[in-house]
Structures are given as structure tokens and as C-alpha cells.
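Chapter summary example.
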Amino acid sequence: MGGPAQRFATVALIGRYASAGIAEPLKRLAAFLADRGHDVILDAETAQCTPLPGYRTAPAEELGRNAQLAIAVGGDGTMLSIARRLAPFDVPLIGINQGRLGFLTDIALADMESALSAMLDGRYVEETRTLLDATLTLATGGSERTLALNDVVVGRGAMGGMIDCAVTIDGKFVYAMRADGLIVATPTGSTAYALSAQGPIVDPIVAALLLVPVAPHALTNRPIAVRDSAVIEITLLRGKDASLHCDGQSHFALVEGDRVVVRRAAHRLRLLHPQDHDHFAMLRQKLHWSETPERLRP
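The structure predicted for these 298 residues follows.
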């Protein structure tokens, strides 16, 4: 595959949008990569808030066509945003954690250079993650389409009451449900909103999609898991001020009769991790498993 710089000749950098503390680590990372012989391109949206003189910039689509690797500095929100845009280009992604919890950004800022040195030399593990393809068909005509890495959520608005929705899987009726909402999540999204709604944590290598009700009226409406090739359709039957949210970043207002169809996307996200990456060790650390109550106190 050639030397380290040839393996990932061009590296794209993406920073947490409008973050006050992002300039220093981005500048440090760009200089580190340039010193190793990599060509560095800065994401154009990042450059609007955090310009790095001396490095060229490009929109996400151009990054996808030209870069062999992308590195995001920020939190999981940063990773979600760039993942949806880069997945169609099959560009692997590394996450540097400048946020708080960071399930997707698994390299600490303090370890950035040492971890990346090994990874750029070829010592890494790669995994792929499922994305969701969501199509909203409006009762009044027209449609919207977007991708999600974590989840697609049909839910009540801030001022509305519970919503009623009908759910089918592969064209077969499953249930009509009254609830605050319904989450369709990938295994990646099982540790996001779905987790707070009492959904299960799913290993990312499991080929499944989750349907997790949010505060259902009937306690018999429980989370279920289906194969990831299933096509899930949610029709809004009743509900004022309802909405569709994808990864908590794309938002659409819903009216009665609107239909949301969710299926596995054609493209998958490629994630690179340090060679000693252990998914369950990461969960243990992030979720404080095995901690005693005394150690959890601030």
C-alpha cells in the first residue's frame, strides 16, 4: 500500500461547528499531518468559523471525492453530520473527542498525535456502520428524503399531546400506537435517544434495526428488533405539532396522513479505531459500568 503518507495521501479535517475551543486542536492536527507528508484539506463549513491559513478548503462533496481519510474533531454531533455526507464516497472516518460523552469520537484530544501516528502507519481496526434512508411522503403531495446514522424519530411537538401512528414492517401491519413518539434506530443509535427511552444496547456488528416507543400509552408497547433489511413505514394518524427528526439534525413538520418510510441505506459508514479498540470497554467507560456509588459522586 506504500508508505504512511501514501496510504492516506489526502486527509480531510472537520471541526465542531462554531466551537470556541476548536481552533487550537485543529491547527495542531493540521500541522501534525502536514509534517508527516499528508495533503490536508479543511471542510469549508468548518473554515467559515475556524479558518486555517495555508490549507485549502472544500465542501463535503469535494472532500468525499478527493480525500482518502477524514478526521473529525468534536463530539458525536460532528461525526453524525459529516458521516451522512461522506458515506456515499466510501471515505473512512476517525473521531477525535472534543465533546462530552463521545460514543463515536473515541480518541481523546490528549492522545491525538500518538493514536493517529499508529493509525496512519496502518495499525488500526475498521468497522462499518449501518445508515438509515428515510423518505417522508406528504399527505398533501411531495416528499423529502434524508439519511441518518443514529435514528429516525416521529414524535410529538413541544406544545402537542400524544400522537397516534400506525406501523407496518415489509407491508404487514404491526400495531397502532399512542405515544410521545417512535424511534427507529440503528445499532449505532442504540446508545443515543433510544437508550434514554429504555431501548436495548446493540452491538454495532448486529444486522438489526430497533423500534423503540417513547412513553407509550399502553405499557405493552415494548422495544422490538428486526432484521436490517426490513422496510418500516410509520403513518401519522392523529397528532398536532408532530415532527420527524433524523439524527436530531434534520427536522420536518408532520400533519395527519404523512408517511415515513425507513430502510437500510445503500451506503455504510466506515469507521477507523485504534488497534486496541474494544467496543464493550468503551461502553464500560462511558456508561460507568462497574463503578461504585461512591466513585460516581461529583
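To summarize the output: The longest strand covers residues 259-274.
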